[in-house]
Amino acid sequence: MTGVARSFVRRFIVCVVLAAPLFFSTAAVADEPVVMLATIDGSINPASANYLIEAISQSERESAAALLIELDTPGGLVSSTKDIIQAMLNAEVPILVYVAPRGAWASSAGTFITVAANVAAMAPGTSIGAAHPVGVGGGGSPVPAAPPTDADGGESQQTAAPTRDFAAEKAENLLAAYMETIAAKRNRNVAWVVEAVRNSVAIGEQEALEMGVIDFVADSRREFLEAVTGRVVELGNGQEVALDLAAASVEPVQMTTLQSLFNFLSDPNVAVLLFMAGLIGLYVEVNNPGLLFPGIAGAVCLVLAAIAFQILPFSWVGLLLMLVGISLFVAEVFVPSFGLLFAVGLGCLLLGGTMVFDQPDLSDLTVSFWSVLVPAVAAMALFGGIVVFAVGRSMRRRPAAGVEELIGSVGTAATPLDPEGKIFIRGEYWSVLADADVEEGGRVEVVSVEGLKLRVRSVS
């Protein structure tokens, strides 16, 4: 072997020795399981549903060991919940749901999502349940039940049975059957989840564990991942996978900018506030042309509110009542109703605000009455009251321009007034009629305007 060849071999061996630790380190990292993390802290809506579905797809594309959903939600849209559960049941990656942090809850739609997970856990101090469709009964008229009959077949004198709301029963039965199917698929307590829908029962984490609603109570995310290690789950394609997540790294999945914006707008409280703010902004701009900022801000708020109304199922009756309320506020400025229109407008705003998102067969999202609607309407009432007071005061005020504005003003007699003559007032000469003779240079006060002449009286 020549000297050049020996030198090349020595250098090659040195490079291999130096690179070996890096190679084995990279291989170890590549073998380390990765758990994707999706966080839901708010309502279940089209934006959050799209976020979770994309997180499932990304986990499948990147061959993640599992997708962990950390959940804290008061509920949401039925359609969005159905989309999420459909994606979870058909996922080709294990889906873990962890109700966290402490104090979180998986209410209503969150109960469905938790039950649909391959493995479900809750942190201490959390709760789950209350999945009954809130205030259901908005579609269709109640149908009276047949009155009770006596032994002879005649109508009994007892009180008639309560009316039946078929729309309420339809929504309740559908959701109960849906929940029962999901619980049976995931081997959870079917009887309890049906009760959660029919009777809106809710329980804490320890009771949920004892009743077989969840699989673990975990104090932390890491404790949950360690607890599921060795558990075998079935994926959407029927394949069974043994979980080994004790040493898994966690990689968060972030919402996109559009998802974050739509998630923010999907809050009914935000939608109502934007709608009211937009109407106030346009009203101020119409009454004070040229201010620009109120008009631009109002238009932006209305555009964002329109986007929110596209996302959320809303009631046209509620929306029209809110518009009528604003219109009555405006009418109070021009019609002397002594506050009657103003009071009716307040009532329309409150009633419309409670009805605008009252679609219980589609969603359990509503506007918070005491913490959002009442303060917002009170603020609008205060603003409207100030406008009405200012306009009424200006209408009662003596004219500040034109000929009438001269009444009460004091001028000087430019010629003798006997009783007619001329006076000099406010830089102008006026023909006048005096109540008594006034010498040239005397001071006079304008009493009234009579055509093109002023009537004056002498003042000392």
Quick structural overview:
The protein is of the alpha/beta class. The chain contains 14 helices and 16 strands.
Please mark out the parts with pLDDT under 50 across 5 or more consecutive residues, or reply none. 22-30, 135-146
Number of strands: 16
How far from one another are the termini? 133 Å
CATH class of the largest domain: Alpha Beta
Q: What structural class should be given to the helix and strand makeup?
A: alpha/beta
Please state how the strands of the largest beta sheet are arranged side by side: 8-5-3-2-1-11
CATH topology of the largest domain: 2-enoyl-CoA Hydratase, Chain A, domain 1
Rg computed from alpha carbons, rounded to a whole number of angstroms: 38 Å
Helix-strand pattern: HEHEHEEHEEHHEHEHEEEHHHHHHEEEEE
What would CATH call the homologous superfamily of the largest domain?
2-enoyl-CoA Hydratase, Chain A, domain 1
The share of residues in helices is: 40-55%
Task: Estimate nothing, just give the exact number of structural domains.
Answer: 4
Overall description:
Mean pLDDT is 82; it is low at 22-30 and 135-146. A hairpin with a 6-residue loop joins β12 (410-413) and β13 (420-425). This protein has helices at 3-31, 46-61, 78-89, 109-115, 166-185, 190-198, 205-210, 221-228, 257-265, 268-287, 293-311, 316-334, 340-355, 369-396; strands spanning 34-41, 66-72, 95-99, 105-107, 119-122, 127-129, 202-204, 216-217, 232-234, 240-242, 249-252, 410-413, 420-425, 428-434, 443-450, 453-458. The protein has four domains: 1-29; 32-148 and 162-256, 2-enoyl-CoA Hydratase, Chain A, domain 1; 267-396, no CATH class; 403-458, OB fold (Dihydrolipoamide Acetyltransferase, E2P), CATH 2.40.50. Strands 8-5-3-2-1-11 form a six-stranded parallel β-sheet, with helices on both faces. Strands 12-13-14-16-15 form a five-stranded mixed β-barrel. Strands 4-6-7 form a three-stranded mixed β-sheet. α3 (78-89) packs parallel to α4 (109-115) and α10 (268-287) packs antiparallel against α11. It has 460 residues and is an alpha/beta fold.
